[in-house]
Design goal:
It is built from 19 helices and 14 strands. With about 500 residues, it is α/β, with parallel strands linked by helices. The protein folds into two domains: about 160 residues, Aspartate Aminotransferase, domain 1, CATH 3.90.1150; about 230 residues, Type I PLP-dependent aspartate aminotransferase-like (Major domain) (Aspartate Aminotransferase, domain 2), CATH 3.40.640. The protein has a seven-stranded mixed β-sheet with strand order 2-8-7-6-5-3-4, sandwiched between helices. Strands 10-14-13 form a three-stranded antiparallel β-sheet, with helices on one face. Helix 7 runs parallel beside helix 15 and helix 17 crosses helix 18. The chain is globular. The model has no long low-confidence stretch (mean pLDDT about 90).
């Protein structure tokens, strides 16, 4: 048989075979399929569908509301918070070197007042230290000048020195957390992490993605979501009895989604527990600027450990911070950092290798961290405006937090702890049995059903507590208090009307 005929027959046979694609749901990493990230789930998908419906027909969209209110995620600028003027001036000038040169050459050096003089000076300093600018790769650990600024910030905050060589700049805090999960959760090993319940879904998603074991320790809702060492001991003992090799302890302070701010004594006990049990302490401290309750104060775990003396010599500690939260709200710029304390140099070298695989974090994000930790000083041209913007944002957040929490506590079936920190409230909802049954029929968790019905009736996007994990038999939802002050009353009104109707509907069906 001629070769051409053989080839034709072979091709014909191949055409009849149903060859499986290499990239399809059945061939994807099953850990990725299993991983869940609740703040961007089915409810947000439905909200985006409604948003398109409104945009397509603003006057006749057929929905009982005219706008979507995204309270599902800590994303301040999407809800109208303005970026800080000084920070954006410096970012603009460093990004556009020609603009900086025009400003410097103009009378007064400010381009006719378009930029403050200290913003021009800061931009020039960054470009003098980094003449390649923002368009070039940086060192994989991040710009040295920014790491120096972070170290000085930490030293002033804690009263203890900080080494720029122990600081890594990252694409937001989440990228740093991912690096450590990828580093510590070993393939084929029963490695696990102690994580607070409720928890930020990043931690459960990464645990699943890297094949680890999530070891939950419950926060005490009856005591303002306190983290208790007795509960840590219970969770650790049970996990070890099952063969889990627990390697790290995650503490989110101030809390997400729960909004608590830990007392100093609790932090001291947690640090001592981590040393005693030989656990790496992961201090997620991204909301350290967001302290709401009177009498509450943020203390970094590094300061707590160093002040304790002997504990600091043994505690392995990673601390995370970001420009996305606080009063900056620069979520999309993706700037973050982590600091290493008492980490083995060879392990640090492997972290550097991991950072090098992606070459470096994005440079505008790195710069946003420098601007966060090194704001205008007293006497600088931008100082007064910066303080006014900062304090205005923080005071407004406090007012909105207390207004929303007070309103929620008045609603039937809803109770919420007083806000202490972060950007969230985590109310508990006591749902009628008929509502739980309706949720079961729809294939949803009961609090997911509540949140979906809330969205359909009001346009308000929240996250069900089941996405954060919670005590069995309880139902919660997370909401931000980020809508602008002139909108927060509308949010409260919509929630109140919805909850009244929801409770009345499902209670009446039980009669």
């Amino acid at each position: 048989m001629r070769m051409s005929a053989i080839l034709s027959i072979s091709l014909a046979l191949l055409g009849k075979l149903a060859l499986a694609k290499q990239l399809e749901i059945g061939s994807i990493n099953p850990n990725l399929i299993e991983a869940q990230y609740a703040v961007r789930g089915a409810i947000l998908d439905k909200a985006e569908e409604f948003q398109k419906q409104i945009e397509a027909n603003p006057q006749g969209h057929g929905l009982p509301f005219d706008s979507i209110v995204p309270c599902n995620i800590g994303n301040p600028q999407v809800l109208g918070q303005k970026p800080l003027s000084f920070n954006r001036e410096v970012l603009s000038l460093v990004m556009n070197r020609d603009l900086l040169e025009k400003a410097e050459a103009s009378p007064g050096g400010t381009l006719g007042g378009a930029f403050k003089a200290d913003a021009v000076r800061r931009a020039r300093m960054y470009l003098t230290r980094n003449p390649e600018g923002l368009g070039a790769y940086s060192n994989s650990q991040g710009w040295a000048v920014v790491r120096e600024e972070v170290a000085e910030f930490i030293a002033q905050r804690d009263g203890h020195p900080s080494d720029p060589e122990q600081i890594f700049l990252t694409d937001g805090a989440s990228a740093g957390v991912r690096m450590f999960y990828q580093t510590m959760l070993r393939p084929g090993q029963p490695d696990g992490m102690l994580v607070p319940i409720p928890q930020y879904p990043l931690y459960s998603a990464l645990t699943t993605l890297f094949g680890g074991h999530l070891v939950g320790y419950y926060l005490d809702e009856s005591a303002s979501w306190e983290a208790r060492v007795g509960e840590l001991e219970r969770a650790l003992k049970e996990a070890r009895a099952k063969g889990t090799n627990v390697r790290g302890l995650v503490v989110i302070n101030p809390g997400n989604p729960t909004g608590q701010c830990l007392d100093l004594k609790a932090q001291q006990e947690i640090a001592a527990f981590a040393v005693r049990e030989n656990l790496v302490l992961f201090a997620d401290e991204v909301y350290q600027e967001n302290i709401i309750a009177e009498g509450k104060k943020f203390n970094s775990f590094k300061k707590v450990a160093l002040d304790m003396g002997s504990a600091a010599a043994k505690l392995e500690l990673i601390s995370f911070h970001t420009a996305s939260k606080g009063f900056m709200g620069e979520c999309g710029i993706r700037g973050g950092y982590f600091e290493l304390h008492n980490i083995d140099p060879e392990a640090k070298a492997m972290l550097y290798k991991l950072a090098s695989i992606t070459l470096c974090s994005n440079t505008p994000g790195q710069l946003s961290i420098g601007l966060m930790v090194n704001p205008p000083k007293k006497g600088d041209e931008s100082h007064a405006a910066y303080v006014g913007e900062r304090d205005g944002i923080l005071e407004s957040l406090k007012r909105r937090a207390f207004k929303l929490s007070a309103a929620l506590n008045k609603l039937e079936g809803i109770s919420v702890n007083p806000p202490e920190g972060s950007m969230y409230l985590f109310p508990q909802v006591k749902l009628p049995k008929a509502a739980v049954q309706a949720a079961n029929k729809s294939g949803m968790a009961a609090d997911g059903f509540y949140c979906m019905e809330l969205l359909k009736a009001t346009g308000i996007v929240t996250v069900p507590g089941s996405g954060f994990k919670q005590v069995d038999g309880t139902w919660h939802f997370r909401t931000t208090f980020l809508p602008a002050e002139d909108k927060i009353d509308t949010v409260i009104s919509r929630m109140t009307v919805f909850n009244d109707n929801f409770m009345r509907k499902f209670k009446s069906s039980e009669l």
